[in-house]
Amino acid sequence: MKVSNETKVGALTIIAITLIILGFNFLRGKTIFKSGNFLYAKYTDTKGLIVSNPVFVNGFQVGTVFEIENKSADLSQIIVSIKLNEAYKIPNNSIATIQDNPLGTNSISIVLGDAKVFLKSEDTIKTAPAASLLGDLMNTLSPLGEQTKQTISELQKVLTNINKVLNDQNKANFDLVLKNLTATTESLNKSMVSIELMLQKQNGSIAQTADNLNSITKNLSDNNKKINNIISNLDTTTKQIKDADLFKTIQTIQVAVNELGITLHKLNTGNGSAAKLLNDPAVYTQLQGTINSVNTLIDDIKTHPKRYINISVFGKQDKSAPLTKPLSDTVN
Q1: DSSP assignments along 208-235, one per residue
Q2: Taking the mean position of all CA atoms in its chain, how far away is CA 125?
Q3: Is residue 62 very low, low, confident or very high in pLDDT (cuts 50, 70, 90)?
């Protein structure tokens, strides 16, 4: 049977159209035969989501949007089919949200839950509305705007109170305070200059004090050996004093003091010859007379030596009367 050229052209045209449709759907992420792992998500607003948009988990693409279908006449429930690249273990309490990106492609982000039971193919995942980027920005700026308004209002109250407080008299006082503050600042500057002069390395008093301290420290270092010897001698002396029998010495001193007290008591009470010598007036008178007689004898020997010693060959014997009392210079 011979096939006409028209039939061949028609068949080739049908095959070409079929391949084009299949290729277009393949590029969009759809296949004629629905196979693989699928999850379903129900939304009331898909936010411009289209087929082949990516699906992410923790920033990693796990699949694509396979199909978007409307299951209600009022468009209140839209079912999105998600085709997973592999059989991922996604907990059944995970949530899928649509991420609206005005500058790029919208996507679905799955926030993993902590359940131990995982979703199976053809299961429905939980969904939640996600705020857009502009909405998030407005929600963030809205509290800041309210806080800014409140801050401005409080600032106006503060300025009003300041205007009430700063009357003419208070303003004059405030000017005086500023002048005093200026004078204090000048004094501080002068003090800082003085401190800098004191802190100069060569001429400052603090530098000189430091030099003196260094000199003293150097002297101590140079005489360290002598100081050690002195300390050693002090240690030796202290040890000798510690080792000495001070208790017996103190007892001996106490005994001597007691005996001295007894002797003084005897002298004061008149017992014994020494006490009589100190306390009896008659003994004193007799002793004084004896001393006078001795002085008289000595003076007489000085005055008339020939009476007692006669060694002269040609001289005569001194027959003058002897002295009856000592001379005045001897007594004095």
Answers
A1: HHHHHHHHHHHHHHHTHHHHHHHHHHHH
A2: 57
A3: very high
Q: Which residue has the tokens 């004061």?
A: 268
Residue 295 host element (H or E): helix 281-303
pTM for this structure?
0.36
Please give the pLDDT value at position 95: 93
pLDDT of residue 2: 66
Q: In the chain, how many H helices and how many E strands?
A: 10, 8
Which phi and psi (to 5°) does residue 255 adopt? -65, -45
> What is the helix (H) or strand (E) element at residue 282, kind and residue range?
helix 281-303
Per-residue pLDDT at 317: 58
pLDDT in tens, 94-143: 999 998 887 778 899 999 999 999 999 889 999 987 655 555 555 555 66
Could you give the C-alpha distances from 185 to 122, 179, 181, 252, 303, in angstroms and in order?
81, 10, 6, 77, 103
- What's the confidence (pLDDT) of residue 165? 67
Cα(302)–Cα(323) distance, integer angstroms: 11
Q: What are the tokens at 21?
A: 């449709």
Taking the C-alpha atoms of residue 26 and residue 52, their distance in angstroms, rounded to an integer, is 10
Joined together, the tokens standing for residue 331 give 């007594």
- Residue 196 to residue 208: CA distance in whole angstroms: 14
pLDDT at 320 over 70: no
| Per-domain residue ranges of the chain | 1-33, 34-134
Q: How far apart are alpha carbons 147 and 151 in whole angstroms?
A: 6
42-46: long-range pairs with CB below 8 Å, 24+ = 42/77, 42/78, 42/79, 42/80, 42/124, 42/127, 43/77, 43/78, 43/80, 43/98, 43/127, 44/76, 44/77, 44/78, 44/129, 45/78, 45/98, 45/129, 46/78, 46/80, 46/98
How many whole angstroms separate alpha carbon 238 and alpha carbon 246? 13
